[in-house]
Amino acid sequence: MRSRTANWFECKIRYEKTMDDGLQKKVTEAYVVDALSFSEAEEKIIEEMSSYISGEFNVTDIKKAAYGEIFFSDLEAADKWYKAKLQFITLDENSGKEKRSTVTYLVQAGSFNGAVKNLDEVMGGTMIDYVITSMTETMLMDVFEHKPQVKGSERELKEE
What we know:
disordered C terminus; alpha+beta
């Protein structure tokens, strides 16, 4: 498992998809992109999807995602994305009372149990107490991370 913290945006695109039976159907799919602004998110989703979709498509919605972090799995079977809400439990030093703060994560896994396992694997390395308050499968198709632009001279050096 690897994790990534960034500014995440959920983008929805609408296009005509060829179904298994050969018929064309208008579908809307959701993706997550790493971007600094709404306009950069739109640019990135168009750039990423242009290589997957032949024909026209429209970006129908972009919204800021509330994920504190995204946990990526290296397993090929991990083809689903789960939204996990965790409550971190801390003690207020002055009053001695429990304080709970909620954080939302996105976890890649092949199944619900796999998502819980992956989350526990990552969070097990921390010293903070937590409770998983919810874990739901999302309709997200994929997550696109930021790819640094390689300048001409740097590209030549990497190719050597």
